Amino acid sequence: MKSTQTFDISHSCLLDATGQLTDSCPTSISAEHLRQAYATMVLIRAFDQKAIALQRTGKLGTYPSILGQEAISTAIGMTMQADDVFVPYYRDQAAQYLRGVSLTEILLYWGGDERGSNYASPKCAQDMPVCVPIATQYCHAAGIATAMKIRAEKRAVVVTCGDGATSKGDFLESLNLAGTWHLPMVMVVNNNQWAISTPRAKQCNAQTLAQKAIGAGVQGLVVDGNDYVGMAYELQKALSRAHAGKGPTLIEATSYRLGDHTTADDASRYRPAQELKAAWEKEPIKRLRHYLQTTGLWTDADEQALLLQVKADIDQVVADYTSIAADAPESMFTYLFEELPSARLNQYQQVANAAASRAVGGGSHHE
Amino acid sequence: MNDAVKDAVISSLNKQSSVDSVKSVTLVEAVNMALASEMRRDADVVILGEDIAVNGGVFRTTANLQKEFGNKRVLDTPLAETLIAGITVGMASQGLKPVAEIQFMGFIYAAMEQIISHASRLRNRTRGRLSCPLVIRAPFGGGIHAPEHHCESTEALFAHIPGIRVVIPSSPLRAYGLLLAAIRNPDPVIFLEPKRIYRAVSQPVPDNGEALPLDTCFTLREGSDMTLISWGAMIHETLEAATRLAEANISAEVIDVATISPLDMDTICASVAKTGRCVIVHEAARSNGVGGEIAACLAEQSLFDLKAPVVRVTGYDTIMPYFRNEQHYLPSTAMIVEAAQKLMSYQ
Ligand SMILES: [Mg+2]
After folding, report:
1. How many Cβ pairs within 8 Å bridge chains A and B?
2. Most buried of A125, B30, B94, B268 (most Cβ within 10 A)?
3. Angle between helices A228-243 and A31-56 (to 10 degrees)
4. Domain with B87 in it: what CATH number?
5. B278 belongs to a structural domain
6. DSSP string, A61-90
7. Handedness of CA A265, A270, A273, A276 (dihedral sign)
8. Is the domain of B41 the same as that of B138?
9. Spatial contact of A173 and A135, defined as CB atoms under 8 Å apart
């Protein structure tokens, strides 16, 4: 028997778990780039801890921690062009922050306020809001990329999801379209080994998730997602291809979810303690700091200054977040349609009047 | 819309144009005309779906559009309904005005998550930063001897979703004007085309680019004894029933709801205030249908105008039978006449 096609899936790791470069640093990634990426990762990890603390004290709703996956998300934010469009899943705080979403807006969203997705910065005006239903955002990304292609724009879409999402039809249908229509898309699968309690091995029998790309005629590769340098480098190459009209790329970024699925979850019920301990040895921030320090790009004084700045920034973010009162109840109608249909005016008046009478000390007046 | 404008629209609709220069077209052709007209007017309008470009759609509603507008604006998609709905959301978020076709309503359920969780709420989720000016078209309803899964009337599923509009034309004229309005509307519209009457009637439809309102029922026939309310293909049995009732000296007003959601209860209540009796006719299963919503609104708003119970003539609460028995499922003119005559015993 002859084989008709052969495929292989590359695996890249530039900065290993001990913080040593296995090859020279790509020239497209400057020292300043790495310093900013490192500072972002430290900020986002501190923000993440603060968000969990806010949830534990009743000041935030359910929150999904990004702990352990900061390199993937930071590399996305650092490498995207300003006029590209980002389509995130719910564990992409670092990329969102670098795109221009404020940390206050991220807290507002997880604090139960729609205004958290009304990004004030014009830099991320076209970015999609956090997507909670799994993998559905892949279709949106494919549609946005289609719009760019129809208009012959030199822009690209970056879309993310977790390992569990690769089992869903939305993911596979979008991947298939990206290949068929040659869309300017970079698809990042954040393989943190767990979909709530379901481990990677029970999600799919494929040796890698990246190889799903092969079935769609798309280039697929695996990158050590805890290796900031390799992650940024592969994203740069994939984005260049997309911008040049050379089609989509699927990047499986391997990492480990060091936290619970969300604050509503307790991973100790299903996650082996030894596995968690081993994963901490490979986490991304320590290895980048080691590299920066041993190459003289980061000093103890830099670290002290960064930690002070991070604390001040987060204190300000929390102060801003906690000072914002809930939106008016009738706002549930304000954005339902561009113009509220007259058939809904009665209900609008009802909620507005009920809110007004509560405000003057009355009880609930739901009729 | 104020009453004067509304009256003008309705009277112009009821007038059957006899001008020779205006082409007489079927509902299929009217859909095609509206798509072409709006694509000429607005470069942001793109259409997509399965078999719509080269083949022109299985019902030919999109025939010749790729020839005129090219393969960047008329897109044959892979066979994936979730994807079609989902990319339509993404395209709309970029300011395009995509009009997607789902080949049959029986295949639209794969798109439901995208419609419910994304299309209907992108504006609200982002407080207006992004929006979804999209249309999803689908042929629906039974009566054409089609295979199973090709005959559904499940408009109530969509009418229950806040943040989208549901529109159903019942004539070539209204298909043209309502589809233009749906495409121009800045929010998502589900546009359901009654395929039983795709080619059943032709009427002159001027290709004048004039849209109809999306928040108004159409009064097709004035009457004083009762109000017959319907939409889609059943309008034809309903109008026929009104003619038969007239022969028995019963004067029936006929309202085409057309905009299923949001519902124009003002027009319906005003008619019932005049007639005091009401029959609601729809092809869809009875329970939890749009007819039930109309009846509930009448109970809330028009109780003291009613001389008789509001009754429904509808499909049964069953799976739509395959075509050898579909005529036993679909409401008939005789059933409407019988229900109406019973109401006349209430004075
Ligand atoms: Mg996961």
Report:
1. 137
2. B30
3. 110
4. 3.40.50.970
5. yes
6. ------TT-HHHHHHHHHHS-TTSEEE--S
7. negative
8. yes
9. no
Query: Nearest CB to B90: which of A114, A140, A332?
Result: A140
- Listed by number, the residues of chain B in 100-139 with a beta carbon closer than 8 Å to a beta carbon of chain A are 110, 113-114, 117-118, 123-131
B26 in a domain, yes or no?
yes
Q: What is the pLDDT of residues B38-70, one digit of tens each?
A: 999 999 999 999 999 999 999 999 999 999 999
The string of pLDDT tens digits covering residues A115-147 is 999 999 999 999 999 999 999 999 999 999 999
Q: Mean per-residue pLDDT for B219-241?
A: 98
Whether residues B125 and A117 touch (CB distance < 8 A) is answered with: yes
User: Which is catalytic among the residues B118, B150, B236, B282?
Assistant: B150
Same domain, B110 and B30: yes
Domain spans, chain A: 10-323, 325-367
Interface contact A170-B83, CB threshold 8 A: yes
CATH fold of A10-323, please?
Rossmann fold (3.40.50)
Domain extent, residue B67, equals: 17-204
ipTM associated with this complex: 0.96
Residue B136 has φ and ψ, to the nearest 5°, of -115, 115
* B77/A177 CB distance under 8 A: yes
Report the residue of A130, A144, A146 to disrupt the B interface, i.e. the one with the largest count of B CBs within 10 Å: A146
Helices (H), A218-299: 228-243, 273-280, 284-294
User: Which residue in the block uniquely carries the two structure tokens 């001897």?
Assistant: B145
Instruction: Show the tokens assigned to A63.
Output: 């929150």
